[in-house]
Amino acid sequence: MISHAKSGGEKPDWILSDYWTIMQRHWATEKAKGTSEKARASRMSDRNGLGPHSHERVHAPFSELKMFW
């Protein structure tokens, strides 16, 4: 939810104005930008030909999922 607000640049109603200002200042720092870029590169990594990771919903009880491990 925060990431959508960050990329959209518009403060959501549920975030206090003071906090929004603090978050925007933080996101503008070189350290935060570097961390964000590093995390993005990690999420988009190739994983030995498998492509970027995506979450897939599995419709099975946990007891049945044990066979995949």
Calculate Rg over CA atoms. 18 Å
Our measurement of the CA-to-CA distance between the termini, rounded to an integer number of angstroms, reads: 31 Å
Query: What string gives the helices and strands in order?
Result: HHHH
Q: DSSP strand (E) fraction?
A: under 5%
Helix content, binned percent: 40-55%
Uncertain ranges: none
User: Would you count the extended β strands for me?
Assistant: 0
Q: Could you say which structural class the secondary elements and strand pairing correspond to?
A: mainly alpha
Report on the biggest sheet: none
* Tally of alpha and pi helices: 4
The general outline is flat
Whole-number mean pLDDT: 84
Please name the defining characteristics of this protein:
69 residues, mainly alpha
Write a structural description:
The longest helix has 14 residues, at 30-43. The model has no long low-confidence stretch (mean pLDDT 84). Helix content is 52%, strand content 0%. It has four helices and no strands. The chain is mainly α and 69 residues long. It has helices at residues 2-8, 17-27, 30-43, 62-65.
